[in-house]
Design brief:
The chain is an alpha/beta fold. It is 43% helix and 15% strand. The protein is globular and about 45 Å long.
Length: 358
């Protein structure tokens, strides 16, 4: 009898466990749909528009006073880049024109036109240096590549400075951004870049639910014994982070080839976000990405700079490096650190780059 009682108890516990798993599965899946990410309205939505090839771009000739608060305005010129000057047309021969290519950290989200690091870099280089701010909020490395291909001929740069963050590589793994705009889909196959999802679908309506890739599967793998069992039977593939980084490296190779065909030197800079300065897991991942990029750029003879040490050497008591907003972009002080690092490094790696004015 004891054996039957034990068997009955075991079966009952298994049924209860299954019922509990089913209940929690339902609760968590419902939570995704009721409280999951929705299309986020960002400040930059006011100066961006849909683009069928890249996803979104700046609206040319936009000027929004106090966009980020009193005294923090943004100006988009007729070329569709942030800045007070217009660059199309013949370039004066005496100018050394540099493009800073990147995402919202390059664009200068949260600060005034005068406090972005491209503008601060121009100020430090003196009159011969002109710096074009081709930062665009939310761009992946791939979108930066497509945007440069579109504008570089009219802008006639003498150098291209790519300033990326780790997230710019991670964004290659999604084709709908949190701002509701879709993006091209970038992958690599046999070392060759593949670009799909063009024309890019129109933007999602504000308020639409935006589940991130893997969220549903994460819930299923957590609560469903069937899914866990099947997962054990199916060989695991390479991680998405490894895939997007390998794709990013191929894009940088394409960027480099494009610039060299135009006779324009290119350099690569990796910049840290706040977690990558202070939180161990983020620091470890950042350092891993930086090592891979350093090895790759060395093999292709691309000058490479990791500016994380410049931030680490700044005293937190004297400099507030990040803004108190959701995405913690660089403050004016943080932008100044990047500008100073570039001003002292670029003349040593790019022929003809004007030295910083002391």
């Amino acid at each position: 009898m004891a054996v039957f009682a034990l068997a009955a108890t075991t079966i009952g516990l298994m049924l209860l466990e299954g019922l509990a798993s089913f209940v929690w599965l339902g609760v968590d899946l419902a939570g995704l749909w009721t409280s999951g990410d929705r299309v986020i309205e960002l400040s930059e939505e006011r100066h961006c528009q849909y683009d069928k090839e890249i996803g979104w771009v700046h609206k040319p000739n936009s000027m929004i006073s106090d966009l980020y608060g009193p005294g923090c305005s943004i100006t988009i010129n007729e070329d569709g880049v942030r800045g007070l000057e217009n660059y199309a047309g013949s370039k004066p021969r005496e100018l050394f024109r540099t493009i800073c290519l990147g995402d919202s950290f390059t664009m200068g989200y949260g600060v005034d036109d005068r406090d972005t690091f491209p503008q601060l870099l121009e100020n430090q280089g003196g009159d011969p240096l002109q710096v074009i701010n081709m930062g665009q909020g939310g761009y992946s490395v791939g979108q930066c590549y497509l945007w440069l291909k579109r504008l570089s001929f009219s802008l006639q740069p003498d150098a291209v400075v790519c300033v990326f963050i780790v997230e710019d590589f991670n964004r290659l793994g999604v084709d709908v951004a949190r701002n509701g705009y879709a993006t091209p889909r970038f992958t690599e196959l046999g070392g060759q870049l593949q670009i799909e999802n063009i024309p890019v679908p129109p933007r999602l309506d504000p308020g639409a639910l935006l589940l991130q890739p893997g969220e549903v599967s994460d819930v299923l793998s957590k609560h469903s014994s069937l899914v866990r069992t099947i997962g054990k039977m199916v060989p695991s593939s390479s991680t998405s982070s490894e895939h997007v980084l390998s794709t990013g490296v191929v894009i940088i190779r394409e960027l480099t080839q494009f610039c060299r065909e135009q006779g324009v030197p290119i350099v690569l800079v990796l910049a840290p976000t706040e977690p990558e300065l202070f939180y161990a897991p983020s620091i470890t991942n950042y350092q891993s990405v930086s090592s891979i990029l350093a090895e790759f750029t060395a093999s292709y003879e691309i000058p490479y700079l990791d500016v994380r040490p410049n931030f680490k050497s700044a005293s937190p008591e004297t400099a507030r490096l990040f803004l108190d907003e959701a995405f913690h972009h660089y403050s004016p002080q943080g932008n100044q650190i990047v500008a100073e690092a570039l001003a002292h490094w670029l003349p040593n790696v790019v022929a003809g780059f004007p030295a910083a004015v002391e």
